[in-house]
């Protein structure tokens, strides 16, 4: 008997900017990434999502491949500026129709849609007019956007997620300056992050007031942090890293409040986040129905007396990344005994079991979907075949780790590898591949099934027994 429940949702995931293309088609407005990716030096070799995998024009072909794969569910995101070109106000009906048609096509094949409202493509108009996530005005704009989604798709979509990986788009957008809007200011980062949590809570409140039949959650990175040694200094640094990277992002949506000690530290040191009247109550009263977990790696943590900065490996040259650290707080260090990808991400499947159980311990047995998990690699092509055996090995180990968490009592309801199809990796271009389906950039974006496609097909058909 399979350890996975009978109704377990075997799926795969993508995101609008990374897969759709059609950046200016049919009335779509500009997103922050449409603008940022065209600025010199922002992305690997100037790559952008103008065309991406052209899923906008080829979604029926792609959904047919999903059906052939046997997918039970598909996690996708909606492009906010495709529906509201200016972020609010006038609705672009052609954009609304695209997602309506996509949802209908999925349901035609019995594939459950999981809709993510925000996967980083902010309408550029909202960045220009109000300052994006730094403005409280964006909360009303996001609530209006969510309301439109519920009105148009609430009769067919049962699984909803408000935001994807707030730690990334606020951290890289406002702390390291590597994502739009390219700011390096911890005070601004924390306040922008607070507005995300309030926008989420408003969207959850509206979802329930409107009586949408379904469940609504939030998608976070899950990166368990472990101390590099058992020294008191490294253990203390690791506890702080876990609080910053995990508790700060999970507590507001699963407990309805920030971790008290960390909140006090931030407000004492920087005076943020600033709460408006009603913020605390809104968060407390709008806890998620489920949590989406994006797991790729764990991080080893050490006390930090020297490193102050961050340089990410975006080339796929193993060892080219630099240490990330906040001097006097903690730093991320390499595990000398670890297995690493070409992008310097540790391959540590046991960390997925561990991280899920940490969620259980802190928040109770909350429903969990593994909303992303995958291997970014440069897949070899031999005699015309895409032989991505390392991806198969990676996913096998992590599916087993998910099964271990289920055996230990965790309520895991679905598994969505990143990604269904090769797509644009934000800062890494098209060289970093994740998909079950290869995109031939030299041959009219032709779709080609990889070795992993047939393997995952058997995993799904056997409900996780045949790995």
TrEMBL record:
Pfam families: Glyco_hydro_1 (PF00232)
Sequence positions that bind substrate: 18, 119, 164, 296, 418
Keywords, sorted A to Z: Carbohydrate metabolism, Cellulose degradation, Glycosidase, Hydrolase, Polysaccharide degradation
Gene Ontology cellular component annotations, sorted alphabetically: cytosol
E.C. number(s) listed in UniProt: 3.2.1.21
InterPro entries registered for this protein in UniProt: GH, GH_1_N_CS, Glyco_hydro_1, Glyco_hydro_1_AS, Glyco_hydro_1_beta-glucosidase
Catalytic site positions: 165 (proton donor), 372 (nucleophile)
Gene Ontology molecular function terms on file: beta-glucosidase activity
Enzyme class: hydrolase
Any one GO biological process: cellulose catabolic process
Catalysed reactions, as listed in the record: Hydrolysis of terminal, non-reducing beta-D-glucosyl residues with release of beta-D-glucose
Similarity comment text for this entry: Belongs to the glycosyl hydrolase 1 family.
Protein name per Swiss-Prot or TrEMBL: Beta-glucosidase
Organism whose genome encodes this protein: Tolumonas auensis (strain DSM 9187 / NBRC 110442 / TA 4)
């Amino acid at each position: 008997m399979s350890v996975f429940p009978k109704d377990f949702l075997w799926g795969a995931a993508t995101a609008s900017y990374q897969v759709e293309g059609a950046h200016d088609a049919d009335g779509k407005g500009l997103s922050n990434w449409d603008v940022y990716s065209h600025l010199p030096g922002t992305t690997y070799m100037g790559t952008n999502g103008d065309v991406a995998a052209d899923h906008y024009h080829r979604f029926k072909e792609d959904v047919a491949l999903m059906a052939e794969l046997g997918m039970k569910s598909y996690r996708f995101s909606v492009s906010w500026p495709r529906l509201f070109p200016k972020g609010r106000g006038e609705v672009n009906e052609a954009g609304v129709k695209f997602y309506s048609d996509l949802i209908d096509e999925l349901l035609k094949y019995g594939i459950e849609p999981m809709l993510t409202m925000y996967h980083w493509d902010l309408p550029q108009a909202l960045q220009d007019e109000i300052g994006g996530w730094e403005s409280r005005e964006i909360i009303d704009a996001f609530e209006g956007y969510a309301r439109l989604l519920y009105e148009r798709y609430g009769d067919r979509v049962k699984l909803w997620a408000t935001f994807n990986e707030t730690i990334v788009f606020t951290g890289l957008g406002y702390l390291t300056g590597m994502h739009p809007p390219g700011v390096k200011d911890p005070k601004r980062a924390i306040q922008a992050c607070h507005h995300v949590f309030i926008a989420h809570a408003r969207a959850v409140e509206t979802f329930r007031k409107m009586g949408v039949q379904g469940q609504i959650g939030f998608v976070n990175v899950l990166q368990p942090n472990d101390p590099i040694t058992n020294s008191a200094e490294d253990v203390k640094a690791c506890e702080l890293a876990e609080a910053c990277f995990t508790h700060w992002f999970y507590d507001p949506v699963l407990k309805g409040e920030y971790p008290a000690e960390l909140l006090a530290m931030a407000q004492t040191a920087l005076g943020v986040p600033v709460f408006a009247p009603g913020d605390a109550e809104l968060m407390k009263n709008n806890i998620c129905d489920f949590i989406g977990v994006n797991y790729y790696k764990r991080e080893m943590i050490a006390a930090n007396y020297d490193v102050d900065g961050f340089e990410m490996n975006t080339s796929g040259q193993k060892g080219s990344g630099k240490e990330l650290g906040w001097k006097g707080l903690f730093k991320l260090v390499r595990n000398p005994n670890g297995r690493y990808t070409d992008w310097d991400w540790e391959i540590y499947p046991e960390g997925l079991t561990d991280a899920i159980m940490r969620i259980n311990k802190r928040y109770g047995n909350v429903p969990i979907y593994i909303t992303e998990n995958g291997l970014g690699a440069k897949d070899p092509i031999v005699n015309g075949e895409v032989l991505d055996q390392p991806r198969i090995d990676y996913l096998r180990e992590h599916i087993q780790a998910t099964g271990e968490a289920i055996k230990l009592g965790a309520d895991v309801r679905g598994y969505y590898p990143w990604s269904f199809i090769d797509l644009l990796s934000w800062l890494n271009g098209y060289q970093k591949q994740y998909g079950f389906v290869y995109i031939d950039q030299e041959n009219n974006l032709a779709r080609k099934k990889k070795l992993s496609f047939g393997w995952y097909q058997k995993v799904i058909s056997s409900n996780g027994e045949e790995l």
